[in-house]
Amino acid sequence: MRTVNHWKTLLILVLGGGLLLAIAACGGKSVSSDAGPVDVSGDLTNESDSLGGVDGQDDAGLGETTDGGATGDLEEDATVDALSSDISGDATVSSCGTTSIVIPEVSKSVGTSGGTVASAGVQIEIPPSALESDKTITIRQLADTICPPNVIRVGPTVEITANEAHTLFASLVPVTLPYEAALVPQGRSENEIKVYFAHTPDGPWQMLPTTVNEPADLLGIEVPHLTYFVPAIPLVPLTTTLPIPTRIFTSPNLGPGIEFAQIDGFLTDNGSSVVLATLRGPGIVAGTNDVVLMSSQHGALDVVARIGDQVPGAPVGTLFESISNSHWIANGGDLLFEAKTTSYTALFRGFPTTEWVRYQDTDVVGTTASRDYSFLDVVRWQPNGASAYLFFLADPLQPCESTTIGAECQGLFLGSRLNPTLALTTPSQALGLAAGNYYRVGNELVINSNGTVAFEVDLAGPDFVDDEHAIYTLSTSTPTRVVSEGDVADGTGVGIPLLIGVNDAGDVFFEDGLAIWRFTELGGAKRIVRVGDPVEGGGTMTSTAAFARPILAPPDRIVFRGAKDGTSGLFLYTGTSIRALVLVDAPAPDLPAPAPPLGGFGEFTINAKGQVLVLGELSEADSTVDANNKACLWVSDTSGALHLLLRAGSTLVVGDGSEKVVQSFRTSYLVFGRGRSQGEPGPFTDDGEVGVEVTFTDGSVAFVVLRAP
């Protein structure tokens, strides 16, 4: 029998795209210097395979239950002897076996510059800026009796902690765990080993996506925070072909029998979940206590606000009456949402929650006239604190400068999230245009991490007909006009300019239905994608736009709808060339051959790594496809190859190995979104995690976090 008590070397390499490569020399197993993990995505590359994180849920957060300590004895007298190598001779399935690996306890202080903590094959590699302050990270081994139900242990139960309830990292952190290959039962494979996590020793436990490095007897995962981990093989082999979720919320954990009836959710920049849910179950009354806003920013999925609850800081009896998802966002550990109380409507922020702006009752900062905030129209946040708010302002004394474009006054506020200041009001005189011409900000507004905003405006006055369109930027006190409808640029006329985004250099990207443009301060507006341009691999662009606006991922990657040689598809501008990601009627990506053709695709987005998330449907012209299994969700790796994340009718792991059939799913903030890089919330993080609201065929609902390959 092999043991892994004697570790000679351990090397952890984090490669581009988040792949964890672990190499070790240990007793009983030879090591190759180029040993690597199994290619979990099946793309035969190392570049972008990555692993899932874990989520901070409390005991009932997964909606799963344990059997009071007899964890998963499928048969009364089942023993590990009947299933695997029996280390002790009498180990039962309920104790999930024992391990000979010994992990000495170690502690080490790690700061904002990052660092590594390791002990006998367990290693956590904290990258720079993942921590906001110094933490003492401790690795310790727990008793073998602490393990998930219905599994066969192949390694030690390990707790990694910072001596506090939860330490939430700003980015996913690689963790390595050792396992004993000799404990893998006959007829089972080392590639079936999964790392399980829980937030208390009693569970519930959830399976994680895991990279197996067979030559080194090591397992790799990535985590957003610290908790308990166990390497094990599920007692019953999995049947699912879909990726294992990194986190899944199947219960609000608000009492026995209370569950989600409907969910709307997104992910913050560090991957924590924000969920607005309608509840059902015992004691739930529609319109009284059935809507709750929850966040996992502190690890567990905790209540931020719930209708029927007392409003913090308000007089007793002031209750939340409704909570809106029209203006809610969370980035950089902060949270903003709009709610109506029994007395007023206000913006609330923070966690725990405090009132920030009360509509019609809070004087607008920075104005000389007596004005109140009427309501919030647009909010954009960057993780570093740069923010933009577009408010309508209640103005009983005077209108803004002109009633030519409506009488309501707008105020655009810029600065830090905690202290934005009034930058401009509209309608007002359009700078750079003749007197009497006015502009009004539309709701298409973006912000880069340097605080520069770009926004669309409507122009009206003697020089304009039918509210012509323009794009402006603002980084100081004076707006700058980028382009107006009808301008001549790059040797041609500009159509109606529609904003795409602004990168950190301040370059503005827009499209006009015939081309995608890039505006630089020195070079002006130039077309970067146009009809007639070549496409990588052959073919020509015959259209650059159709029904949905392009989305920018700085510095200059753009995903957009278009057509190649008359065939509709989704395309990626890489900064130098155009690549077709998927074409309608072509074989659908990442499905077994012969794959059914793609019938069409809907919303899409792109993250900072250039990975693209796209919703699509398979063609029902294929005999294997019908209304119950045609919906698919794909995500690309950094090379542009699409991988299947989710499909209606397929089986998904929802807990410690239990599986459910997906009936339908949706992702928030994909329709006409501008992407996280432009200050919007979204379902797709720069770490490659995707938040999806899933309904299963048994009627249950969950917020599922999946990991891009």
What is the tally of beta strands?
51
User: Strand share of the residues?
Assistant: 35-45%
First and last CA, distance:
35 Å
The coarse overall form would be globular
Total of helices: 0
Query: What is the radius of gyration computed over CA atoms, rounded to a whole number of angstroms?
Result: 27 Å
If you average the pLDDT, what whole number results? 82
* Main structural class: mainly beta
Tell me roughly what share of residues is in helical segments.
Answer: under 10%
**Main sheet makeup:** 7 strands, antiparallel
As residue ranges, the low-confidence spans are 1-94
Which labels suit this protein?
709 residues; single chain; five-stranded antiparallel sheet; mainly beta; seven-stranded antiparallel sheet; 45% strand; disordered N terminus
Report on this model:
A hairpin with a 4-residue loop joins β22 (345-349) and β23 (354-358). Helix content is 0%, strand content 45%. By secondary structure, the protein is mainly β. Strands 3, 6, 7, 8, 10, 11 and 14 form a seven-stranded antiparallel beta sheet that branches. It has a five-stranded antiparallel beta sheet with strand order 4-5-9-13-12, with no helix packed on it. The protein has a five-stranded antiparallel beta sheet with strand order 15-51-50-49-48, with no helix packed on it. It is globular.
